[in-house]
Amino acid sequence: MIFGLIALLQAGCATQRDAATTADMPKPDKTISDQALDQALTQLYRQWQGTPYRWGGTSRQGIDCSAYTQRVYQEALATPLPRTTHGQAKTGYAIDYQSARQGDLVFFHIRPGLRHVGIFLGGQRFMHASSSKGVTVSRLDNPYWQARFWQFRRYF
């Protein structure tokens, strides 16, 4: 029982294992302009805003953080992402905090074995599936997120 709970916590926001690596993942067919990316992210946020958080969830009835980033990347950028936070944190490439731009993924260490992911919007804001608020926009300079920041990764 305790080992099962530990395994669940180590999985992060999702329940499935990832087989894809960066080399396995196709590149998007075309680059997207900043304006088009902003419009796509805004539209997808509005569609999902307030959707409740559900660990392992992938639908509007409930979604977890990595399923949300996976869905947004597929719909906005036609770019596949691994299903789990752990898998997403291993693909793409790391970006310096100062170099982060809209659309990059932002990762957090919540507690040992538990990670969280969101999509950077610029201006210290990111959208994500929050366990307390559902799909929402939060600020990186909020003390909670600031203390847990881990890395940015880029996929496009």
Describe the structure.
- Helix 2 packs across helix 3 (about 65-75).
- The longest helix is centred in the first third of the chain and has 15 residues, at about 35-50.
- About 30% of the residues lie in helices and about 25% in strands.
- The strands form two sheets. The chain has a six-stranded antiparallel beta sheet with strand order 3-8-4-5-6-7.
- It is an alpha+beta fold and about 160 residues long.
- The chain has helices spanning about 1-10, 35-50, 65-75, 85-90, 145-150, and strands at about 60, 60-65, 95, 105-110, 115-120, 125-130, 135-140, 150-155.
- The model is unreliable at about 1-10 and about 15-30 (pLDDT under 50).
- GO terms for molecular function: cysteine-type peptidase activity.
- It is a lipid-anchor.
- This is NlpC/P60 family protein.
- It comes from Salinivibrio kushneri.
- One of its GO terms (cellular component) is membrane.
